[in-house]
């Protein structure tokens, strides 16, 4: 494995590979939009989606909700072999957007008096975070959720990356069932990056531990709690958790990856199937643009959390590497567009899937999209900018994975 490839395994960025990718044979013309609202504002959005496909991504699906008005757009293909168009209701792996669901469950538990955000990890998971300078008695639940724990990101471990994240080895091991405790043990081989609470560093391990705390407090599986507390009450009928199944529910397109190989001519693989346990609470949920918009509207407007817990969720720490107006709360990201719109949301990157969902502060508007290819180019447009500012810009569509969704396959 080359030095550069090893470095990519360490930073764990899915979708941030070569600086330029030539337009390939599968770049299909844009599909006709399916819209309930034909508001002019979405013209730039559709153009940005088309440009993303022209840059080499197989297909894009997006949905915007503005009050009662719904706009749905697609571009490109959901299947490179058959040429079938990307579907407006496609399900996809949302990767680290899962973290918002997990943080919401823990905040609900706090509201019910079952735990406190300032409880230590040691209180709920005795002995699990220890060794090599790691000390669960010094790390709080809050610090897991806002990534200020200092705990090493397990997907950045070179050996883990070489086996589960890179090239042919990923293909050989993508059906393996991995226990969450295994992911924690990988992280515990490394010293923490800093003293808890003194800095910020995105780590998937934080949310593996958060999922284990949910299970310890509830006496149920993490999946059960998410389903009973969020998925069922909000009627998210297209949202599911795969457990250790490798399969995708229908309807869904195929998912494509270059397997973190940085050559512009790297072979594109169909990676639709992979064992869901390799994501778990840090990135396993499957959903749609419509369900994500519904969830984030309910969340930001106080339908899911009491005021005190929603305020805690929206209390951010600085994430300067992501931009001057960007901060990370408890499983949610605050950002601002070039035209001044403040947004709350999260991004997610996993093999074959790059996704993003945002909502305005007042909950009046939501927007989400998914790419069924996990690489990006410098010339790819910023779809969020196009939607909210009418400006297709030139930010890679995977920019939200630079830490927000990053630091690993389940970014």
Strand order of the largest sheet: 1-3-2-15-14-13-12-11-10
Q: What is the helix/strand order?
A: HEHEEEHHEEHHHHHHEEEHHEEEEEEH
> How many strand elements?
15
Strand content: 15-25%
Organism: Streptomyces amakusaensis
Protein name: Serine hydrolase domain-containing protein
GO molecular function, one term: hydrolase activity
Keywords: Hydrolase, Signal
What's a quick, concise take on this entry?
29% of the residues lie in helices and 15% in strands.
Give the SSE layout.
Elements: H1 3-11, E1 34-35, H2 42-54, E2 59-66, E3 69-76, E4 92-93, H3 98-111, H4 121-124, E5 130-131, E6 134-135, H5 141-145, H6 158-164, H7 167-173, H8 180-187, H9 204-218, H10 222-231, E7 256-257, E8 269-270, E9 286-287, H11 289-300, H12 307-313, E10 317-318, E11 327-328, E12 333-336, E13 342-350, E14 353-360, E15 365-371, H13 383-389
Antiparallel strand pairs: 1-3, 2-3, 2-15, 4-9, 5-6, 7-8, 10-11, 11-12, 12-13, 13-14, 14-15
Signal peptide: 1-27
Keywords: Hydrolase, Signal
Protein name: Serine hydrolase domain-containing protein
């Amino acid at each position: 494995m080359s030095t550069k490839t090893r470095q990519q395994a360490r930073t764990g960025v899915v979708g941030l590979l070569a600086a330029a990718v030539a337009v390939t044979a599968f770049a299909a013309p844009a599909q006709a939009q399916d819209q309930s609202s034909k508001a002019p504002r979405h013209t730039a959005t559709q153009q940005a989606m088309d440009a993303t496909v022209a840059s080499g991504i197989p297909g894009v699906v997006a949905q915007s909700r503005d009050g009662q008005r719904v706009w749905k757009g697609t571009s490109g293909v959901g299947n490179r072999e058959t040429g079938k168009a990307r579907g407006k209701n496609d399900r996809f792996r949302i990767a680290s957007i899962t973290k918002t669901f997990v943080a919401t469950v823990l905040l609900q538990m706090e509201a019910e008096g079952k735990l406190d955000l300032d409880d230590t990890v040691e209180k709920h998971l005795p002995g699990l975070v220890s060794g090599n300078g790691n000390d669960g008695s010094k790390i709080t639940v809050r610090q897991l959720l806002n990534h200020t724990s200092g705990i090493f990101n397990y997907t950045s471990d070179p050996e883990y990356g070489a086996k589960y994240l890179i090239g042919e080895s990923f293909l050989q091991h993508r059906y393996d069932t991995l226990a969450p405790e295994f992911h924690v043990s990988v992280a515990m081989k490394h010293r923490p990056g800093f003293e808890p609470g003194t800095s910020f560093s995105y780590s998937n391990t934080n949310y593996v531990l958060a999922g284990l705390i949910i299970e310890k407090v509830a006496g149920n599986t993490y999946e059960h709690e998410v389903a009973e507390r969020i998925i069922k009450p909000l009627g998210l009928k297209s949202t599911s958790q795969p457990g250790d199944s490798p399969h995708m529910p229908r309807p869904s397109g195929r998912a494509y990856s270059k397997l973190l190989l940085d050559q512009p001519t790297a072979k594109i693989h169909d990676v639709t199937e992979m064992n869901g346990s390799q994501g778990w609470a840090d990135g396993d949920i499957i959903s749609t643009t419509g369900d994500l918009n519904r969830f984030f509207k309910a969340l930001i407007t106080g339908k899911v959390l009491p005021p005190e817990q929603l305020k805690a969720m929206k209390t951010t720490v600085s994430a300067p590497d992501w931009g001057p107006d960007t901060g990370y709360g408890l499983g949610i990201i605050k950002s601002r567009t070039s035209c001044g719109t403040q947004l709350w949301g999260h991004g997610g990157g996993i093999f074959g899937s790059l996704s993003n969902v945002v909502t305005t502060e007042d909950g009046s508007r939501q927007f989400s999209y998914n790419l069924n290819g996990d690489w990006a180019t410098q010339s790819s447009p910023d779809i969020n900018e196009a939607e909210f500012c009418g400006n297709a810009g030139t930010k890679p569509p995977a920019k939200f994975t630079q830490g927000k969704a990053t630091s690993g396959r389940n970014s």
